[in-house]
UniProtKB/TrEMBL annotation:
The keyword RNA-binding does not apply. GO terms for biological process: proteolysis. The active site is at D171, H226, S473. It comes from Thermomonospora curvata (strain ATCC 19995 / DSM 43183 / JCM 3096 / KCTC 9072 / NBRC 15933 / NCIMB 10081 / Henssen B9). Keywords: Hydrolase, Protease, Serine protease, Signal. Residues 163-513 form the Peptidase S8/S53 domain. Residues 345-386 are annotated as: Disordered. This is Peptidase S8 and S53 subtilisin kexin sedolisin. Residues 1-23 form the signal peptide. One of its GO terms (molecular function) is serine-type endopeptidase activity. Gene3D superfamilies: Peptidase S8/S53 domain. It comes from the Bacteria.
Length: 570
């Protein structure tokens, strides 16, 4: 899954700063001192002119701002954050660093495997291809769509979606040329709010060399693969190729806020959310979670005063953007997280801060009380989605919590098998950019896949590729797709086509879900047979406790989403 963010790389020189094409910066000053980027939050109700003057008085230069929610990216020398807090017109400032993170692309078998791409070295896969009559060629691999009734004989009998319904994918980008995405891709409205970052403050590679001179990728490119997978799950069309998404006739809009590496910065995320509200997006999918602070706390003793101030800015700025979008008709869907953590209980975080915006910065252990929040999934008005496997059990990696989870959806669980061993067919299959598959050496010279987690589907002279992933990042787009079907079914004509009050959309999504009780006894023990590269297996045993009733509990929320019930298909 993934998270929220800003614009660039901590310590930079003024002359080395590359700005996104959409930004409206002031003219850069010619300076030789080292400067840092900050995200500044204006106090609510303060005129923009007064806030800008306060930024200048504190020693900052505005590079870009989002006046809709009062957020600006500022360049200044060290000490600016403290100076900004003394300005009455400013709420605070945070070093402009990553607030969100998606899994880094796996470029080789020796790299660390994420939950979503676990088991890349395992060379076994059953391949039951061939869809039933009237279904897409790879429909037999889509246990996920069967689990929620998003099939030709289920929800799609009543509703396949309406092209006027716009689903925004706030992620690492969308491969708009993928044959199983292109028919539903809205190129005109798609935007990229990010600038590629070659290295962090410690000199470690982040995005690597820029692919284009401006370092701002086109709005139809995904150099990570995550956003393309998410988009495909939502709305791959019924076109006789590969798979069909949950809502195969709605329109996909790329709202890129994630770096190539998978990091998400605050300014980009805020810009994506406010843009969604401005152009009439109906549903947004947010398969990311807040980094570098996995949890943001306003007064955690484990953090310094400066870190507390920074996290307060993250919470407030993100919430303002969420409120802005929702007030303009956007239903907000988010992944619940892959930490296998109960978000309503104390937690030990050892991953934050996970991005070096200042030299020498590295993760440290923090005690996290339940009052701390992961953004955007714990934002007000957001629908957090946990993940299920093929057997409908909560996935072993999925975070949970009674009062936190709204609904559950298929996210894949590659160990949800009879023998507890990994099977890629227990993951979620969705679109994969061919360019990345070739770059990563996953295809033979003739174009056939040479790894078990990638498959190909061809129709005539057109071929497309798909990969198996797992994660709450994969669960959220199933819910976003059902939300899009709900808007298609019950929406009314509005400025952008069709629209439906997000409160109604969420209510139908929750009330139509299939209520699913906690495991007998309240807890579930996972026994996974994890294979090492040498072929040996190690049993990994973990237990999670589910609290609540059948109609609302910490594993499933109000239940597993049901596309058929949501649109009257049964």
């Amino acid at each position: 899954m993934r998270r929220v963010v800003l614009t660039a790389t901590g310590v930079v020189t003024a002359m080395s700063l590359a700005l996104p094409a959409h930004a409206g910066p002031t003219k850069p000053r010619q300076v030789t001192e080292q400067t840092t980027e900050y995200v500044v939050l204006y106090k609510e109700g303060v005129p923009a002119e007064r806030a800008r003057a306060a930024v200048q008085a504190a020693g900052g230069t505005i590079l870009r701002e989002n006046t809709a929610v009062g957020v600006a990216t500022v360049r200044a020398a060290a000490g600016f954050a403290a100076a900004a807090r003394r300005q009455a017109a400013l709420e605070g400032a945070a070093v402009n660093r990553v607030i969100g993170h998606a899994p880094k692309p796996v470029r080789g078998l020796h790299e660390r495997f994420s939950v979503e791409k676990e088991g890349r070295h395992i060379l076994r896969r059953k391949d039951p291809r061939g869809g039933a009559r009237g279904e897409e060629p790879l429909a037999n691999l889509q246990w996920d769509m069967k689990q929620i009734g998003a099939t030709g004989s289920g929800a799609h009998k009543a509703e396949e979606g309406d092209r006027r319904v716009l689903v925004g994918v706030i992620d690492t980008g969308i491969d708009g040329s993928h044959p199983d995405i292109a028919p539903n891709f809205n190129r005109r409205l798609s935007r990229n709010f990010t600038t590629d970052i070659p290295v962090d403050a410690n000199g470690n590679e982040v995005d690597g060399p820029c692919e284009v001179p401006s370092c701002v990728d086109p709005a139809d490119v995904d150099d990570n693969d995550h956003g393309t997978h998410v988009a495909s799950t939502i709305a791959s069309p019924r076109n006789g190729l590969g798979i069909a998404g949950v809502a195969p006739r709605v329109s996909l809009v790329n709202l890129r806020a994630g770096q190539d590496s998978g990091y998400f910065f605050l300014q980009a995320t805020v810009d994506a959310l406010t843009y969604a509200g401005d152009v009439g997006i109906d549903v947004v999918n947010m398969s990311f979670y807040v980094d570098p602070w996995l949890f943001n706390c306003v007064d955690n003793p484990a953090d310094s005063a400066a870190d507390q101030a920074e996290q307060r800015v993250v919470i407030e700025a993100t919430q303002r953007a969420l409120d802005y979008a929702r007030a303009r008709g956007v239903t907000l869907i988010a992944a619940a997280g892959n930490q296998a953590a109960d978000y309503t209980k104390p937690y030990v975080d050892t991953s934050s801060p996970n991005y070096a915006s200042e030299p020498g910065e590295s993760p440290r252990e923090r005690q996290i009380p339940p009052s701390c929040v992961s953004m955007p999934s714990e934002g007000k008005g957001v629908v957090p989605v946990s993940a299920t496997g093929p057997s409908k059990r909560k996935a072993y990696y999925s975070s949970f919590g009674n009062g936190y989870i709204a609904v559950a959806a298929p996210g894949g669980d590659k160990y949800d098998t009879a023998d507890g061993k990994l099977d890629h067919n227990a993951g979620i299959w969705a679109a994969y950019p061919e360019r990345l598959a070739r770059q990563r050496g996953e295809l033979n010279a003739d174009g056939t896949p040479n790894v078990p987690y990638v498959i190909r589907s061809c129709k005539g002279g057109t071929c497309a590729y798909y990969q198996s992933l797992q994660g709450t990042s994969m669960a959220a787009p199933h819910a976003a797709g059902v939300a899009a079907l709900i808007v298609s079914r019950y929406g009314k004509r509005d400025r952008s086509g069709l629209g439906l009050d997000p409160r109604i959309t969420e209510s139908i999504l929750r009330s139509s879900a299939t209520a699913t009780a906690c495991p007998k006894g309240g807890s579930y023990t996972y026994r996974r047979q994890v294979q090492s590269p040498d072929g040996s297996f190690t049993e990994v045993v973990t237990s999670h406790t589910c609290e609540g009733s059948k109609k609302r509990n910490g594993f499933y929320g109000n239940g597993i989403i049901n596309a058929s019930a949501a649109v009257g298909g049964r």
